[in-house]
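Researcher: Go.
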Amino acid sequence: MGAAVLEIDPLVSTSGAAVAGFTDGEVVPEYVDSETRGFVKVRTSADGTGVSTGSTAGKGSKGNRVAHIVLNIVLAALLALAAAVAVVPRVTGSVPLTVLTGSMTPTFQPGDLVVVRPTAVEKLHIGDVVTFQPQSGVATLVTHRIIMINHDAQGNVETIQTQGDANNAPDNLLIPDQIMGRVWYSVPMIGHLTNGRNTLLVISALGLGLVAYAVVLFTKKDVEEEAQND
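Model: Structure:
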């Protein structure tokens, strides 16, 4: 076999019958060390009754394993980010919004992404963070925390009052129609990247990341197969 055999300490002891027909120092292609992905090297004992095996994999293989782990982590992070900012909001009817001011610090920072899920006002509670229109019919949206809920004689929600965590004064009373929904979850510091025209850039970057991962993965696989066939 053309591949160089590295001199390392034996890894596994087994019976001579397991590698019958192989001589001392010969590489056994049928045996591959699962940890290092290297072939094993036969080492007979002094009396010829037993053998030990050592991996032919070296530092390069360890580096490949580390790179593979890193790539998997990057892929998982990209998939999670794509799901959080695009997939989950779309399939649940939620709306991703960018925090533009510091009125909700330290809960949310400017640039954070909040995903707002439509919620019936009857299911809202004091302490919930909601997104609302300060003026009915106006496109401007504000995301603040509920500090008071007022009900009418029949127990229906009549008005809701909110206040930013960093603000010293409460907002004007809101009627149910002004409430757009409750904040479901947030993604720190990703809001500006996904805001407006930048959304296309983020999606493209995620796509390129996945393509790059696939190229590296298949290239690595081909190199390993060639090395095993040498």
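Model: DSSP finds two helices and ten strands in the chain.
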